[in-house]
Amino acid sequence: MTRAARHPALVLGAAALVLVVALHVGVLVGPAGLTVRGVFLELIDALPFVDVDSGLTTRQQAILWNIRMPRVALGALVGAMLAIAGATYQGVFRNPLADPYLLGVSSGAGLGATLAIALGGALGAAGVPVAAFAGGLVAVAATYALGRSVGGMRSEVVIILAGVAVAAFANAAQTFVQQLYDDTLRQVYTWLLGRLSTDGWSDVVVVLPYVVVSAAVILLHRRMLDVMAVGDVEAASLGVSPARVRLVLVCVATLGTAAVVGASGLIGFVGIVVPHAIRLIVGPGHRLLLPLSLMIGAAFLVLADVLARTVMSPAELPIGVVTAAVGAPFFLVVLRRHRGVS
User: Fold this and answer.
1) Rounded Cα–Cα distance for residues 178 and 340 (Å)
2) Cis-peptide, bond into residue 31, ω within 30° of zero
3) For 105-122, what is each residue's pLDDT tens digit?
């Protein structure tokens, strides 16, 4: 047990503080000139039976409530879900390289979004997240069906290999559609690189129930993940059904991932980088790893979005580029560290 893991309340409190700071930075940073005092008073004014003058103009109030806060909230939800789903996949499959897109969610979502964009006249812009969500779920369902038919789901290796096969097929189909509708390539790649642009609170309202339910189920199974870390045979001898736990956790993690991917596009590295960084501090125990992944994942993506919309202002970088720029070097450091240990 690491020194940090011996003080869980202190570690969780520090993570909560990091998240609060990140949320404040996400709301305040930008060209609108919002002040800390103005935002604080505006939030106080939103409370029942409170009437204070925040000093913000009508335009600034609209930017705060209709643009900044929905975007920050969506970024926090997406980052939290991707991070806790990544930690869950890594625990379920006992593979530190597993991420939320392992079983074909990204490829299925990409195919669904590509079809929706190519057929935009029929589905409209609102059809893209719905199609991405459906595509991700269909891909994972196909992965499980293939794994069951080939190996009877006897091990996590069979599921992973089935996911690779389904992802390859979905990627091929997506490339075929892109070739047929090459006039939509720019829109497709914009979605694939990830974005957190929102139309008010609608995306947040749609995504929130999936994230809450998925995260709650995962957190309730955190002790099961610690038991499964010793192996399926040993876990079964302790009264745990590895197949059932694996199915439940993969389903809820996939459901949450598909929901946030539908709203944000494909944002890589969050599900690998955040759990790895936390393990370096508190160790592999899921009692702390999962809630910390939830909070730090939210903070990480909110801050990445701040960079995405300020580095090249007034232009905006795709947030997937920012997370890759941060995540890829970190991943290389982790690989080098493990190589040195071995």
Assistant:
1) 43
2) no
3) 999 999 999 999 888 755
pLDDT for 49-83, tens place per residue?
888 888 888 888 888 999 999 999 999 999 999 99
CATH number, domain 4-334 = 1.10.3470.10
- Chain centroid to Cα 114, Å, comes to 20
Contact status, residue 70 vs residue 200, Cβ threshold 8 Å: yes
Distance CA 144, CA 231 (A): 21
Long-range contacts of 334-339 (CB under 8 A, 24+ apart): 334/276
151 pLDDT band, cuts 50/70/90, is: low
Alpha carbon distance 144, 340 (integer Å): 36
* pLDDT > 90? residue 85: yes
Distance CA 30, CA 67 (A): 11
Q: With contact defined as beta carbons under 8 Å apart, do 292 and 10 qualify?
A: no
Residue 310's CB is within 10 A of a number of other CB atoms, namely 14
Given a cut of 80, whether residue 32 has pLDDT beyond it is no
What letter represents residue 314's amino acid? P
Q: Which token pair is 48?
A: 């029942």
Q: What proportions of the chain, in percent to the nearest 5, are helix, strand and coil?
A: 75, 0, 25
What's the chain's length in residues? 342
Give how far the C-alpha of residue 286 lies from the chain's centroid of Cα atoms, to the nearest Å.
18
